[in-house]
């Protein structure tokens, strides 16, 4: 018997054949309530999954998700989902090898906005849409790296600004233009706005989204910006779930159970979402399915960004240089586990805010366990990608706070030094490294001078500010970078651990 195609018609048979859990709610009754930009693996393993849980309990059928894509590559997601009634499989993988497959049904449509920007704006302006959510990555917010402000000189942004000033919607290119156009339409029609909910890995993601959307709106129409400032909510959130890129092996695993899914999602068994309760037009009852709805997200997001995300950077460059491709392979080496725990305990944790009821020691050790989950098959190159957006947001705030308070930055400096060595573009075995970063050319040019000028990489003030002028940072940075050149990643880590009193073989 050939595998079945995943679609509404075959759901019952798919359960019988594969044992996969499928939606038990009537998908024909779902109406749209959310538009989401950035329908990738993380959104489908996280926000869409939580909504599916609510729908399984008979709730939130008026909160169906319409996906939107603005980038040329988004055509692939549009076509994959359209070919299977916007259903997809979420495979949750536990470290012991257990796999739980579930078909998620909360996404009901997908619009590729370049096909018809006017129709996309009309969808966003539909009064049934009460939340517009975003997972557009750290680099998607159009930030000028030199100033930290909204980049008004971006060509696509300038185009959309001119279109909106002229009252046109038919060639809008960016999610900033599309969302602002919809809010402009609602304001003109006397309609209520929607909430803009960022789910990206950025500290203060809602505040940041508000700042940049208002900056764009101000450049279009100051009165519109003032209305948005008063009427639109931009809640902060902290999101957490390791979700590697989907591979052909993942598709084959699904097919082996009896059905075809063009784009399944794989994730670890851990998931967390902390969400600020600030919405202007209602929201799903997320707290009923495990979401922590709170008044202040900041302590939670600092814990996640500075422990989990920064630790990802702590393992990926050293690991890549040492020849590792899989994250769990890095964590199989005791020196990496001890280095990450030492960074979290000595440098990251002192910069966190009070978190009553949270066992930070247990959280740190849980992170090590999660990173070592071989079943997830997360890759080191994935963690190394887009470092110029990640390091300044996740790790450098730890450095700045510790320097200001007289704290140690030895381990943070080591992580930055490992990035500088990685950016040279060749590992310790002489193999070429493909540096995936919007600033790849600049980073590699800077790193090419590392052996002549040990602080060359650090002198990029748009990324590092004045760190190259601060001996408390440059001394451990230079020491580690020289050691990476002379001795390699593993021997360098051994020296670092001995220096901070946690050599391999000791008890942490």
TrEMBL record:
Biological processes per GO annotation: mannitol metabolic process
Reactions catalysed according to its record: D-mannitol 1-phosphate + NAD(+) = beta-D-fructose 6-phosphate + NADH + H(+)
Molecular function (Gene Ontology), one example: mannitol-1-phosphate 5-dehydrogenase activity
Superkingdom of source: Bacteria
EC number: 1.1.1.17
Protein known as: Mannitol-1-phosphate 5-dehydrogenase
Residue intervals of the Mannitol dehydrogenase C-terminal domain: 296-481
InterPro entries reported for this sequence: 6-PGluconate_DH-like_C_sf (IPR008927), 6PGD_dom2 (IPR013328), Mannitol_DH (IPR000669), Mannitol_DH/Oxidoreductase (IPR050988), Mannitol_DH_C (IPR013118), Mannitol_DH_CS (IPR023027), Mannitol_DH_N (IPR013131), NAD(P)-bd_dom_sf (IPR036291)
A Pfam family of this chain: Mannitol_dh
PANTHER family cross-referenced by the UniProt entry: MANNITOL DEHYDROGENASE 2-RELATED, MANNITOL DEHYDROGENASE DSF1-RELATED
Organism of provenance: Corynebacterium halotolerans YIM 70093 = DSM 44683
Enzyme superclass (EC): oxidoreductase
Keyword terms: NAD, Oxidoreductase
Mannitol dehydrogenase N-terminal domain segment(s): 33-287
Similarity remark: Belongs to the mannitol dehydrogenase family.
Entry keyword NAD: yes
Transmembrane region(s): none
